[in-house]
Amino acid sequence: MSPFQGYRGDGVLAGVRSRKRVFASAAAEPVTAAAAPKRQKRREEPSLDALPDECLFEVLRRVRGARARCASACVSRRWLALLAGIRAASEAVLAPPAAPAVPDLNQEYIGGEDEEEAEADLMDHDGDARERTLEGRDATDARLTAAAIAGGLAAVSVLGSHPARGVTDAGVSALARGCPALRSLSLWDVPRVTDAGLAEIASECHGLERLDITGCPLITDKGLIAVAQGCPELKSLTIEGCSGVANEGLKAIGRSCAKLAAVNIKNCAHVDDQGVSGLVSFATASLAKVRFQGLSITDASLAVIGYYGKAITDLTLARLPAVGERGFWVMANAQGLQKLRCMTVASCPGLTDLALASVAKFSPSLKLVNLKKCSKVSDGCLKEFAESARVLENLQLEECNKVTLMGILAFLLNCSPKFKALSLAKCIGIKDICSAPAQLPVCKSLRSLTIKDCPGFTDASMAVVGMICPQLENVNLSGLAAVTDNGFLPLIKSSESGLVNVDLNGCENLTDAAVSALVKAHGGSLAHLSLEGCSKITDASLFAISESCSQLAELDLSNCMVSDYGVAVLAAAKQLKLRILSLSGCMKVTQKSVPFLGSMSSSLEGLNLQFNFIGNHNIASLEKQLWRCDILA
Predict the structure, then answer these.
(1) Which of 80, 202, 327, 498 is a good FRET partner for 42, with 20 to 30 A between their CA atoms?
(2) What is the separation, in whole angstroms, between the first and last Cα of the chain?
(3) Which residues of the chain fall below pLDDT 50?
(4) pLDDT tens digits for range 252-307
(5) What residue spans carry the Low complexity bias annotation (predicted)?
(6) CA distance 63 to 52
(7) What is the pLDDT of residue 130?
(8) Contacts of 529 (CB under 8 A, 6+ apart)
(9) What pairing do the DSSP bridges indicate for beta strands 368-372 and 394-398?
(10) Contact (Cβ atoms closer than 8 angstroms) between residue 87 and residue 177
């Protein structure tokens, strides 16, 4: 009942009732065309948009706390735009002339009480600044501006863009004004950002250290020149797939950014020798990590790298069809790459046996070499390469089809005593040899061996591996379908130091006998075992694992023939402290395994139960029992 029921003191309510009757009678009459706009205007609800900026600011600035203030901005576009226009500690705040001074909003956000309640995933490694990532449909100007007005952001990544309301220069400008202390900015596939937005970043964020621009076709040399002039602290630059970027921007970066240490230029059609040469020659004192891929550069650029790359420690050259053997030879013989430690070359037809030997000879610090799809590298240079690279620790070859097992044996016979890791992937030349060489090497320093997806590698070759690598700890034999127990067992027996990581993914001819021998010989050291796709592996292997393995932390049984009984055996092994277990595609694992999985050790952090017959309702029950564990189903 209304508190004004029956009140007649001054006739106010009576007047209200009479007006209601008048309005009701008027509503019953037909509405004329002239009266329609008035009626529409009368029915409009009050809106904050009717207030001037000064009044709106005075109302909403009294909202306390960063979260509440950001929430207010998200429901009022004018408030959002107003905050976005305020530069941190630099512009006078909108207020009437007679009004007292208003505290800077950005400073309030940084020092407010709500700052302690910020989400942990927004904190960077320093613990005193925040990171924010906008991805896909969430990447809009409104969201970027709302993140910017809270201030304090040190790293921002925009990955993709909303198809209709994507990030534009307006959002990037708001970010620049709201976060002048920004240190890292990534713009991936943001096609509506232009040089104007990048120039705003350059004019406000003078401490920017890392810039990653990928798939931004409207950014050109003009934007990069602005960054060069406004961001002298820049240390890392990535430009990928930006068709508007050419040579002048790179030369400006090299000339003005004296601290530039890492550069990655990829798939930029208009970058050629002038841009690369200018960048490298100007940044000769600081540039340590260089990656050039998919560019129209020639031997001239490699000559500049070889002469001016005095600080380069990590060099990647990929898909450079115009670079020939001469370019690599000159790069090496310029003798400027004295500090080079890691070199990756992919899909470069100019890398020949002569070029590779020259690089090894004149790069005395070289520790890692990774060659992919280098079709002209063969056995001919491996012996000389091994003799020249005296501190080499790691050699990785992928799809280098002219390299054979004879070349690898020659390399191991002459390699550095510090050599630790060898990887051979998809090399069709790696196959069984008709007769073993007169002298087999014994590489006692080798700790890690990967022979992956080499279809010609069978039991005969595996037996040779066991003889020459007695100190292996990490073995990856993924995709060697031709290897059987007869080839794998000698490798197990010859390993003296104890295997730690073993990956047998796709070795479909290995049986329980091989796994049992492996865990009995190395159960005390084995920490990671992958048997994915080993279709002959059954519960017998799990019984051996449960009895012999005390250090095993990760076990992958995907697409094996294990059953509920094997799961029960694993669960009952008290000494087994698995962190990761995969039973994906194990069709014999059913709902009967649920009680056993639920009783597994509290150490379990990840469980993969995809593609089996456990059922969704049983998964829900497991999630309650294993609440610490991430379950993939």
Answers:
(1) 80
(2) 57
(3) 1-29, 31-34, 88-128
(4) 999 999 999 999 999 999 999 999 999 999 999 999 999 999 999 999 999 999 99
(5) 25-36
(6) 18
(7) 82
(8) 502, 504, 518, 519, 545, 549, 552, 554, 555, 556
(9) parallel
(10) yes
CA–CA separation, 288 and 283 (whole Å): 9
Rg (CA), the chain: 34
pTM as predicted: 0.81
What is the spatial distance between Cα 174 and Cα 172, in angstroms, rounded to a whole number?
5
3-class state of residue 395 by DSSP = strand
Phi, then psi, of 203 in degrees rounded to 5: -80, -20
Distances (CA, A) of 576 to 162, 475, 526, 554, 568: 48, 22, 12, 10, 13
Which residue is associated with the tokens 């309030």?
108
User: pLDDT (tens digit, 9 = 90+) per residue, 407-458?
Assistant: 999 999 999 999 999 999 999 999 887 766 667 888 999 999 999 999 999 9
Quote the CA–CA distance of 188 and 190 in Å, as a whole number: 6
Residue 126 neighbours by CB under 8 Å, 6+ apart = 154
CA distance 192 to 168: 5
CA 404 to chain centre: 34
- Structure letter (DSSP) for residue 123: B
Please list the residues that pair with 580 across neighbouring strands.
Answer: 554, 606
β-pair type (342-346, 130-135):
unpaired
The pLDDT, as a whole number, for residue 497 is: 85
Distance CA 40, CA 592 (A): 67
For 100, which DSSP code?
A: P
What was the pLDDT predicted at 95? 36
- Give the integer Cα–Cα distance in Å for 385 and 31: 95
Asked if 246 and 275 touch (Cβ cutoff 8 Å), the reply is yes
- Tell me which H or E stretch contains 290: strand 289-293
- Residue 25, pLDDT score: 44
- At residue 550, φ and ψ (nearest 5 deg) are -115, -15
DSSP characters for 185-207? EEEES-TT--HHHHHHHHHH-TT
Give residue 29's pLDDT: 46
Q: What residue type is 503 in one-letter code?
A: D
Do residues 622 and 598 lie in contact, with contact meaning Cβ atoms separated by under 8 Å?
A: yes
pLDDT tens sequence across 41-81: 555 556 666 667 667 666 666 666 656 666 666 566 666 66
CA angle 348, 352, 356 (to 5 degrees): 100
What is the rounded distance in angstroms from the CA atom of residue 48 to the CA atom of residue 416? Answer: 75
Crossing angle for the helix pair 353-362 and 325-333, to the nearest 10 degrees: 10
Q: Which two tokens stand for residue 206?
A: 């003078």
The H or E element containing residue 467 is: helix 459-468
Residues 6+ apart with CB under 8 A from 596: 564, 567, 568, 570, 571, 572
Phi-psi region of 267 (alpha: psi -120 to 50; beta: other; left: phi over 0): left
The two tokens of residue 45 are: 């609800």
pLDDT number for residue 106: 39
Total length of the chain: 633
Q: Give the whole-angstrom CA distance, residue 389 versus residue 414.
A: 10
Alpha carbon distance 278, 246 (integer Å): 12
3-state class (DSSP) for residue 370: strand
- pLDDT for position 84: 60
**Helix%, strand%, coil% for the chain, nearest 5:** 40, 15, 45
